[in-house]
Design a protein that fits this description.
By secondary structure, this protein is α/β, with parallel strands linked by helices. Helices cover about 60% and strands about 5% of the residues.
């Protein structure tokens, strides 16, 4: 019998990419909005910060806070935030697709982006908008314009890169890790060395410097809290461990977490190993994707190894936006129709499993365990409404301030119809926008979860003696399962008379 030869697939990669982005945007925006009881606490914190319009905040530079605050003006604090989170992901996809098409064939570029749907920061973790996730499109577009600037040496690309470099720093100081491989590429490649003979690279540096200067001036006036927070975040939570073992435990945990983020991309591309060819990527392109795509992760790993610094797995979120490009560039597969169908089938299975892992488990876990510990179940709106109503009943004025627990303070700020100013943990250095005279004059609601160090009202009153009418209120988590209520202490700091 005559064997029918394999046929390569012929598709319009741009149309497929557009459909993929639309489907991703729809499902990952809609389902979290329907399933979760409130927005993630990082998002609430960012909104509460952003509404104060500062040049910097206790933990991070201002860009993410500003963007999340602007998103709420679209109408509400829930669906706009979930939509924003997916716009962040889609912008990353677009940048990676455009960059990949400069190196690979359109079909290979499409597959490289589709791989990212199986990488957890782009799917399971996608509903979370925070400074780390905001780095994704910033890094992806920085890589695109940096590549274009090096290969074409046009000033407009350097100008865009200068703007993005400033946004990179103003999003999170971790962003400087992208500058290191960029600098290396300007030194070790012919295209990079040419840059120093032209005005473009200096224009980019100047634009970046001018745009970040106001932030650093403002931050210097309050003692650079973002830097202090970043340094304190690496101390970790394994103080009981033998000190020398931390040099291995911390990076090992970080590496395993990162592998867990990316393993799906390797699994769904297994069919293309059967049509692998010798890669045809130019030497410069290989250097570019490996340095930009892998150096930040490798540097972070070695930093932890030699310094025994704790690494939060979530810090690896922006590191793998080029993982699909690296895999497909290495394989350079002949895209036979049947292999592409298997790849799409595996991708669909991966997406379904991720949805089940994220939201199937989220919906059913309270019924199985009898507990609702995830922040997705937090009755944030009910808590904010209760606090606001109590204030109105007692003082018949608008609620101007809220203080107490850091994240509950953020939730009341976001969900209360009065949108009071947050005074986080009653610490002035966390809330530099607070005018203490005005705070004492107008008073504040106080909110604190009854857990950890606060087991009863006496322990709360001992630490906060200025509180009045302090009582515990029970709130049921946002699930119909029979689970324990959440106990929240609410009290008043009365206005001065």
């Amino acid at each position: 019998m005559k064997r029918i030869p394999n046929k390569t697939i012929q598709i319009n990669a741009n149309k497929w990419f557009a459909v993929f982005c639309c489907l991703h945007l729809f499902f990952w925006t809609t389902i979290p909005a329907l399933v979760r009881g409130c927005i993630p606490f990082d998002s609430a914190e960012s909104i509460a910060w952003g509404w104060q319009w500062q040049l910097g905040y206790f933990k991070h530079p201002p860009f993410t806070a500003w963007i999340t605050a602007l998103a709420t003006y679209a109408g509400g604090v829930e669906w706009p935030i979930y939509l924003l989170a997916q716009i962040v992901v889609i912008l990353t996809f677009i940048a990676v697709f455009q960059l990949a098409k400069k190196m690979l064939t359109p079909i290979h570029a499409l597959i490289a982006v589709l791989c990212l749907e199986a990488v957890l920061p782009f799917s399971l973790m996608a509903p979370f908008i925070n400074p780390t996730s905001m780095l994704l499109p910033v890094w992806a577009w920085s890589a695109y314009f940096f590549y274009a600037a090096l290969t074409e040496q046009k000033n407009r690309y350097w100008i865009f890169l200068g703007f993005l470099s400033a946004i990179n720093i103003l999003t999170k100081y971790q962003g400087v890790l992208l500058f290191l491989p960029m600098f290396v590429l300007t030194l070790m490649t012919q295209q990079g060395r040419k840059s120093y003979k032209r005005a473009g690279i200096y224009l980019a540096v100047f634009i970046c410097f001018i745009l970040i200067l106001p932030h650093f001036i403002g931050s210097s006036r309050v003692g650079f809290p973002e830097i202090k927070y970043a340094l304190s975040s690496t101390t970790g939570n394994m103080h009981a461990a033998i000190i020398w073992t931390r040099h291995f435990i911390y990076p090992a945990r970080f590496m395993l977490s990162a592998l867990g983020f990316c393993i799906g991309a390797f699994v769904i591309t297994l069919p293309f190993w059967f049509s692998k060819q010798k890669n045809q990527l130019k030497n410069f392109d290989w250097q570019f994707i490996l340095w930009i795509g892998l150096f930040p992760f490798a540097f972070t790993l070695f930093f932890s190894l030699f310094s025994d610094s704790f690494l939060d797995a979530n810090w690896a979120v922006p590191y793998f936006f080029l993982i699909g490009v690296i895999i497909i560039a290495f394989l350079n597969p002949i895209v036979y129709r049947h292999l592409f169908k298997i790849f799409i089938g595996l991708l669909i299975i991966a997406i379904v499993l991720i949805f089940i892992l994220r939201y199937g488990v989220l919906l059913t876990l309270p019924y199985v365990t009898g507990k609702a510990e995830s922040s997705a179940y937090l009755p944030a709106k009910a808590m904010a409404d209760q606090a606001t109503q109590l204030w109105h009943q007692r003082y018949h004025t608008k609620l101007a301030y809220v203080t107490g627990d850091h994240y509950d303070t953020a939730y009341v700020t976001v969900y209360s119809p009065d949108h009071p100013k947050p005074y986080f943990d009653t610490y002035p250095h966390e809330s530099p926008w607070i005018n203490l005279k005005d705070f004492k004059k107008k008073g504040s609601i106080f909110i604190l979860p009854m857990k950890n160090n606060f087991k009863d009202l006496s322990s709360v009153k001992k630490q906060y003696p200025q509180l009045e009418n302090l009582e515990i209120y029970d709130f049921h988590p946002t699930t119909s399962a029979h689970v324990p209520s959440i106990n929240i202490a609410i009290g008043f700091i009365s206005p001065a008379h």
